[in-house]
Amino acid sequence: MAELVLYHLPGACSRVTMTALEQVGTDYADRAVNLMRGEQRTPEYLSVNPRGKIPALLVDGRLLTENAAIVWWLHTEHPQAGLLPAADAWERAQQRSDLFWVSSVWHPSVRANMMPIRWTTGDPAPVRERGKQLIAPLLARLETRLAAQPWWYRDGWSIIDTYLYWCYTTAEEGEYDLSGLDHIADHRRRVAEHPAFIRAIAREDAARRKMS
Ligand SMILES: N[C@@H](CCC(=O)N[C@@H](CS)C(=O)NCC(=O)O)C(=O)O
């Protein structure tokens, strides 16, 4: 079995990869990278991941970055784990499309809203506002979809649900008001009750205690 080391930060988007690892049920070590202290820019961390981001997964010493790519690799290695259940090649292609879409459209919009100072050296307020404008139609679309089915895919939980959960809860941390989005509120409860998510949160809590 490969030796896995996850570089992460409790509460950050690395929670998606951590939940995927928990769903797979494989052994892995986790190392917290304190982004608030700029540890992602230290020579030590850049020697692990020159891109200076989390999550980063070392697989027998080889580096894999990007939530979408890590999740896809885990799914390919452990298809029985149910990270991305699919009936055929078309559904698999659709899942890849959805992963790329959450990663390249939702994720940056949420970050603009929650962490506007990463996007401008000037006044962060308009960037935050623009993030909110970009998030609004995404949330409206999600709300409509979840009115018809409890999970992103009709047949049940997938790691996309966890990724979407991270996006909308992070938007809320950026003071995006989620009230009135009742189907998203229900989805939020369901995702939070998922066993792999509960284990990931427990592991994040343990990492948080070690950091402080
Ligand atoms: N597209 C990347 C985004 C990774 C990312 O932006 N991670 C943030 C934490 S959520 C980070 O490492 N930020 C540190 C920085 O930008 O300096 C992925 O999905 O893995």
Report on this model:
- By secondary structure, this protein is α+β, with helices and mostly antiparallel strands.
- The protein has two domains: 4-82 and 196-211, Glutaredoxin (3-Layer(aba) Sandwich), CATH 3.40.30; 89-193, Glutathione S-transferase Yfyf (Class Pi), Chain A, domain 2.
- It has eight helices and four strands.
- A four-stranded mixed beta sheet has the order 2-1-3-4.
- A hairpin with a 2-residue loop joins strand 3 (56-59) and strand 4.
- The radius of gyration is 17 Å and the shape is globular.
- Glutathione (GSH) binds at residues 12-13, 35, 40, 52-55, 66-67, 103, 107.
Q: Which architecture of the largest domain would the CATH scheme give at its second level?
A: Up-down Bundle
Bound molecules: glutathione
Briefly note the CATH topology name of the largest domain: Glutathione S-transferase Yfyf (Class Pi), Chain A, domain 2
The total of beta strands comes to 4
Q: Largest beta sheet: what is the strand line-up?
A: 2-1-3-4
- Gross morphology: globular
Briefly note the structural class of the backbone.
alpha+beta
- Distance N terminus to C terminus? 32 Å
Largest sheet: 4 strands, mixed
Which ranges are low-confidence, i.e. pLDDT below 50, for 5 or more consecutive residues?
none
Number of domains: 2
Range of strand content: 5-15%
Estimate the helix proportion, in percent.
55-70%
| Estimated radius of gyration | 17 Å
Mean pLDDT: 95
CATH class of the largest domain: Mainly Alpha
Helical segment count: 8
